[in-house]
Specification:
Rossmann fold, oxidoreductase, Sc_DH/Rdtase_CS, binds nicotinamide-adenine-dinucleotide, 7-stranded parallel β-sheet, NAD(P)-bd_dom_sf, about 260 residues, SDR_fam
């Protein structure tokens, strides 16, 4: 069977590759041989991830990009294309969150979260997949969804709505891109302490999360690498598209 998970010769673009979860996934893809573009708004974090990958023998370069700006996404795609010639794997990991009570929610905040989590995702995929199609490159798109996408989480109303949208986009594009040989899947992570959810993880909420997580612990970012490598590899998951892979310690299998 050879190595089902070998990504040698593939180029991956990790949007939000500077995030806690995105960085771990990017390192996992690089460890399997993928050349990788680390994209962040914050270049300091992106450079640190890139440096670590290179120190471990991988090939990587950092790029600056803001997914809420069409202009920035287009510029980013051109810069990465000039560096690598194209890409086979696209990881979409940026995310924004907030815990504003429903009646206090303002349109600006709704737009701010949707601009990154959903609108940004749509226009990023549109831009990057278009170039894959033009180059007749087959490949894999991996979106980072959330447990709140299937059953909303209390407090994070806008975030949950945006992630439900991520699932819908994933399934829609699985059909749309299948004729081009581009697979589109999502990972549904459970709970992993990171920047965007730090403020939301109060003591009570952590207790509630643990009560609903059969494995009774947070996830470690490295525990997402296997799922991402599997979805990225045409040899391992060549007939898998439009699906959601849960990495959540059993959270999604629990009600009470
Ligand atoms: N941590 C968790 O428990 C958890 C669970 C489920 C899903 N997720 C998802 O994982 C992904 C990564 O988040 P994380 O938890 O590692 O948190 P994080 O705070 O480390 O990362 C969020 C990232 O989004 C980026 N970002 C925000 N606005 C952006 C913009 N306009 N353009 C480009 N990038 C932008 C930030 O720079 C940051 O790198 C997100 O999509 C998040 O919703 C996280």
């Amino acid at each position: 069977m050879g190595n089902l998970f070998d990504l040698t010769g593939k180029t991956a673009v990790a949007i939000g590759g500077n995030s806690v979860l995105g960085a771990s996934i990017a390192k996992g893809l690089a460890a399997q041989g993928a050349k990788i573009a680390i994209v962040g708004r914050n270049m300091e974090k992106a450079e640190a991830v890139t440096k670590e990958i290179i120190e471990n023998g991988g090939e990587a370069k950092s790029f600056q990009g803001d997914v809420s700006s069409r202009e920035s996404i287009e510029k980013l795609a051109s810069e990465i294309e000039a560096w690598s010639g194209g890409w086979d794997i696209l990881l979409n990991a940026p995310g924004k969150n907030s815990a504003t009570p429903f009646f206090e929610l303002e349109m600006e905040e709704w737009d701010d979260i949707m601009d990154v989590n959903l609108k940004g995702l749509v226009f990023t995929i549109q831009t990057f997949a278009k170039r894959m199609v033009e180059q007749e490159r087959k490949g894999s798109i991996i979106n980072i969804s959330s447990v709140s996408s299937t059953t909303p989480l209390s407090k994070v109303f806008t975030y949950s709505a945006s992630k439900a949208g991520v699932n819908s986009v994933t399934q829609f594009l699985a059909k749309e891109f299948a004729p081009y040989g581009i697979r589109v899947n999502a990972i549904i992570p459970g709970f992993f302490p990171a920047e965007q959810n730090r403020k939301i993880l109060s003591k009570d909420r952590i207790e509630s999360i643990m009560n609903h997580t059969p494995m009774n612990r947070f996830g470690e970012p490295e525990e997402l690498q296997g799922a991402a490598v599997y979805l990225a590899s045409d040899k391992a998951s060549g007939f898998v598209t439009g699906t959601f892979l849960r990495v959540d310690g059993g959270f999604g299998s629990m009600t009470i």
